[in-house]
Write a structure and sequence with these properties.
355 residues; eight-stranded parallel sheet; 34% helix; alpha/beta
């Protein structure tokens, strides 16, 4: 399947700080991102409620946290984050409109330039994700930049809906449905122009943190089975894997005035338990990228899949660690919320200085 070109190999992950047109425009405008990812959307949008869908930054040493839902909050030492956010309230159609607005404002390319791609993060049932793919594919001809679709199958914050990427069967149902859709899009073109190469919108999956071998193997098994699925002449539909999402079942406690403890942020299930990200996640994210890369290389049918490494990248050192374990590009989430878009300049200038 078509590879995704991200140059420079630095971008934002899907998170609360890429929700609005203004945020996406700022991310696209900086020369230090090689691609821009949207916040995960659904066809009809997610019923966001800021009283129970929250995030906070915290110091990994003493767990002291900032006020919930405050961008660029806290101190320099508050490099961890916890969130109970869920998905974007903005429907997919509106995100495609945002991308069209950004595309319309682009200048013509000069020699050696390229338009950085947009990775449109989506989720839903397998049928809904196929519909998302149809919408994104149809939108490609209306915008200048290349589009890709990232299927978020790993959010830990949706009550009653465990991440499908932990289940080989569930993951395979998405992959086979998407492969069938790719085949249906390509078939008319192949019949009318059998010797012409056809380009489709690349597909990626965003995985949860895996912590033992069987979880990795379940993902690999699903990818391999999808390569065998109909239409059999097409390869595995996945071009890239974004690893990793936040680590669920995490909790921050704060002292109350009467010296007892209470959860620091709210959540839909009233426990305050959410997804851990930032510096505390970094070693696990590195391990996920390293392990997934090694497993992909063991199979010819999967060896071309790229990895976008995400999790706890604070600076140039985190960037280089991710690249060292096999990430084709590196995503930034928590630090974007803490520092804003300038984090990409900080990392990007260091990258260029060492080229």
């Amino acid at each position: 399947m078509k590879a995704l070109t991200i140059s420079p190999p630095l971008l934002n992950s899907s998170n609360p700080w890429c929700t609005s047109l203004e945020q996406l425009q700022e991310l696209y405008n900086t020369p230090y991102t090689g691609a821009v990812t949207t916040r995960t959307s659904l066809i009809k949008g997610f019923p966001h409620d800021s009283s129970v869908h929250q995030y906070t930054f915290f110091d990994p040493k003493d767990l002291a946290a900032s006020q919930p839902n405050v961008d660029q909050a806290g101190t320099l030492s508050q490099t961890g984050s916890l969130n109970t956010v869920g998905y974007s309230p903005t429907p997919l159609k509106e995100y495609l409109g945002y991308i069209k607005t950004i595309s319309d404002g682009l200048h013509d390319l000069k020699d050696g330039e390229h338009y950085k791609p947009f990775i449109v993060s989506v989720t839903g049932t397998a049928d809904e994700v196929v519909e998302c793919y149809k919408m994104i594919s149809a939108h490609q001809k209306h915008v200048r930049m290349a589009l890709a679709m990232e299927v978020n199958l790993s959010c830990p914050n949706i009550v009653g809906k465990p991440p499908p990427a932990y289940s080989s069967t569930a993951l395979l149902s998405y992959l086979t449905a998407l492969k069938a859709e790719i085949g249906s899009q390509l078939e008319p073109l192949e019949q009318s122009h059998p010797h012409t190469g056809h380009v489709h919108v690349p597909i990626g999956i965003k995985t949860p943190p895996y912590t033992y071998h069987d979880q990795y193997q379940a993902m690999i098994d699903a990818l391999l089975e999808s390569a065998k699925a109909q239409p059999k002449h097409l390869p595995c539909p996945v071009s890239f894997i974004t690893a990793t999402n936040t680590l669920g079942s995490s909790l921050l406690l704060s002292r109350t005035p009467d010296s007892t403890f209470a959860h620091t942020i709210e959540s839909a299930n009233e426990t305050g338990i959410g997804g851990l990200a930032g510096t505390p996640l970094h070693p696990l994210a590195l391990g996920n990228v390293y392990t997934i890369k090694g497993l992909l290389f063991q199979h010819d049918a999967l060896s071309g899949i790229q990895i976008i490494g995400v999790g706890g990248v604070e600076d140039i050192h985190g960037f280089h660690r991710m690249r060292a374990v096999g990430a084709a590009a590196v995503g930034v989430g928590t630090t974007l919320g803490r520092k804003g878009v300038k984090v990409f300049e900080e990392i990007g200038k260091e990258v260029k200085a060492k080229e």
